[in-house]
Amino acid sequence: MKRNQAQSQFIDLMFRTYRSESESRAIWSEWLKVRHGGRINWELNFQNDLTSDELEVYRSDLKRLQEHEPIAYVLGELIWAGLKFKIDNRALIPRPETEELLFLLFENVISPLRIIDACTGSGCIAIASKIKYPLADIIGFDISGDALKLADENSKLNQANLKLYQNDLMRPIPIWVKPKNDDVWVGNPPYIAPSEFLDQSLNFEPDMALFSSDTNPIIYYDKISQWAQVGLKTKGILLFEVNYKHAKMIAKLLQKQDVWSEIQIFKDNCGKDRFIKSIRL
Questions:
Q1: Looking at the domain 90-280, which fold is it?
Q2: Are 113 and 101 spatial neighbours (Cβ–Cβ below 8 Å)?
Q3: Phi, psi of 81 (to 5 degrees)
Q4: What pLDDT, in 10s, does the model give residues 257-281?
Q5: What is the pTM of this model?
Q6: What digits encode the pLDDT tens for the residues 59-93?
Q7: Burial class of residue 208 in the structure, from the number of CB atoms within 10 Å of its CB (0-12 exposed, 13-18 middle, 19+ buried)
Q8: Neighbouring residues of 52: CB distance < 8 A, sequence distance ≥ 6
């Protein structure tokens, strides 16, 4: 198969799958960048045939993508916040909104000594924070041992030294949470209610990282804030990424705890209530 034929077929099949010209071309662009080094390398050999190995990878990737498997899982990697991460179904795929959460952290924190990343997943926030603040002590924790293994692999890939712990928010506060010892707690816990309608691609991501509870959809925010109010220093910062439907509910929860000041809701780039910042009294 010639490369020009492969390109036409790929984009056509992606359009049939996703019914979006822009999404089809975005997937094509990402695939091209990882598998063939980008558009220039591809177009320099545009009239040439794919090698047998290239054709095998092309067909395998295309089949997975037609089944709505996310492009990040198909490629096994993702560039996020300018860093390369290994990505697979052991953890949630880092989203653009979480990149916005990271930048909100960077805007509000100058020289922290200790940052805690709750529900760290692939380790993206913790690792990017370590790159930004190399002298800081960065801790990431998650309930999933598989996710923590992936976070460890990513920390080594990016040469970022982290401390990673396996902890369940539903259990007592662990001993590594020291009273008034932390500058920042940041969290992006599961926040989708099981009853919500989901895009097919989310079927490939771990339920543990996606879903909260229909009866108490903000339970993980309640638990993280309880842990954080122990660990944070006075004037320490708590940052959350949230389901926009629950932002006001979480803000009210923090107000009721009566240990937080300057509770603010921030919108994401799509204009939705997505982030909450509060300061420990």
A1: Rossmann fold (3.40.50)
A2: no
A3: 55, 30
A4: 999 999 999 999 999 999 999 999 9
A5: 0.94
A6: 999 999 999 999 999 999 999 999 999 999 999 99
A7: middle
A8: none
